[in-house]
Structures are given as C-alpha cells and as structure tokens.
Amino acid sequence: MNSSKQKQSLIARVIKEPLFAFMIVGGLIFGISAALQPQTSEKSDNIIEVSDVTIDRLTAQFDAAWKRDPTPEEMQGLIDTFIREEVLVREALALSMDQADAVIRRRLVQKMTFLMESASSGAQPSDAELQTFFEANKDTYAGKQKQSLEQVYLGAQVSQDDASRALAALNDGADPLTVGQPSLMPGALTRAPAQVVDATFGRGFFASVLSQPTGVWEGPVRSGYGYHLVRVTERPVAAEPALDDVKEKVIEDWAQQATDDISKKMYQSMLANFEINLPDTQENVTQ
C-alpha cells in the first residue's frame, strides 16, 4: 500500500516538473515540424488531399458562423475555396514568398510563443509552493498606502517670506480658510490612496508628503498647480493580508510566473541548437 502511494506521489511530482512539460511540448513541436516538412516524393507535392477531417473542419467552421450545416452546393463552394487556398499557398512557398516577410515572421513567433506558454497551462501549485510564492511577494498584496491631509493653496508662485508667514499662522492655530488663495481644489482628503491624491494635485504629490510628520503644517509643497501648505492628519498602516484573503490573485500570479519560467527554459533550449555569428562590436551578445 505504501509502495503504491509512493509511486503515485512520484508520478505527481514528475508531472508538475517544468522539464516534464517542456518534454511534452518539445515532442509536440517536433511532431508538428515533421508533419509540415515537405515530402521528397514528387507525387505528394502534387496531391491535395481533401480528407474526411478536412470536410469535418470546414463543416464545423460553417456551422459556427451560420448555426446550421452547409447545403451540398455550399459544401462544394467551401471545398473549392480550400483547394484554391492550398494551391496558392503551395505555389507561394515554392517561390519562397514566406522568406523575409515581417508579417509571416511575427505570426510564426506568436504561434511559437503561444505553444511555449501553453506548456504550463493547467499547472497547480502545492500549498507549500503557494505559501512560498506569497511570502516572497507579500508586498505586492499589501493594502494600498493611504493618507488623510489638509492643504492651503498659496498660488502658482509664492515668495519664501509669504510662505513662512502663512505657515507660522497655521501652526499658531489660524483657520485654514483665512490663509492662502481660493481655489477649486478640495481643502482636505480623507484616507486617499496615491492615485486619488495625484489625480487631484498632480503626479508625485502623494509621495512628496509621505515622509511628512502628522499633525503639523509643513511646506511649501509643489503641485501641478503651484504651491501648498500641507498638514497630514492621518497615515493608517497598510493592512498586511493573509494568504486566504488574496489566494485567487496569488494563484494567478504564480501561474504567470511558472509560464514565464518554462518559456524562458524552452527558448534557452532552442537557442542552444544555434550558432550565433555577430559583428565584432557585438561579440558574446546572444540574447
């Protein structure tokens, strides 16, 4: 009984290994490549096979578009179109029209990229793997930093003396509404994340007051509109989530990382089959 469980456990570990997925996809690539290689027989080059599989595919495509099977006349038209396409494609390949064509190259790269990325599709992490990934990337899942603040607008330009007088007045208890210049900007924001603060005052404003102590007016702080005096009233600590709170997102990110890792390994394996010749100025650059 224990031996059977050990074998099952070993098989499960092997199947989850990226190398196993690579071998499967590598075999698939080899099979596709072999199937697409032109045959040496002159007879096969001149034969266009309209097989039952071809008929089924054409029928399925027609049904997907029109929600019914094609009539005999429509089926004949589909076959004629398939034959015409096959003739033109083979003649184009015979004339090497696929060579040095940027559109075809991009499409082939897309197909190979999709094939490599599909190697990890359906892979699921163990609880231990997921926990390890979560711990290594915990900052990614932490709650957004927020700040509550008040601000007084001093204007597009302000002298140092005027800014100092306004700052002293505010720290002495002056009503913010009696200091500075009127504007359409809000006088306060409550528990606002960087996206909201920067959307209100301009990019970088949130970060510029992030190190400012709370409860004290400071500045002037520059925004996209001019200069401000700012008092940070609250800076709540960002919540640190538990794995169960963000498990779906962590699994998604783990799967993307696994896909990236396998794709890189497969590319490096393919790259090893080639000798790269570069100009002297780019020697040793192969990536």
Automatic annotation (TrEMBL):
PpiC domain location is 125-248
EC number(s) per UniProt? 5.2.1.8
Keywords assigned by UniProt?
Answer: Isomerase, Membrane, Rotamase, Signal, Transmembrane, Transmembrane helix
Q: Please give one Gene Ontology molecular function term for this protein.
A: isomerase activity
Can you tell me where the transmembrane regions are? 20-36
InterPro entries membership: PPIase_PpiC, PrsA_foldase
Q: Which domain of life is it from?
A: Bacteria
Chemical reaction(s) catalysed: [protein]-peptidylproline (omega=180) = [protein]-peptidylproline (omega=0)
Family to which this protein belongs: Belongs to the PpiC/parvulin rotamase family.
Q: State the protein's name.
A: peptidylprolyl isomerase
Native organism is Falsiruegeria litorea
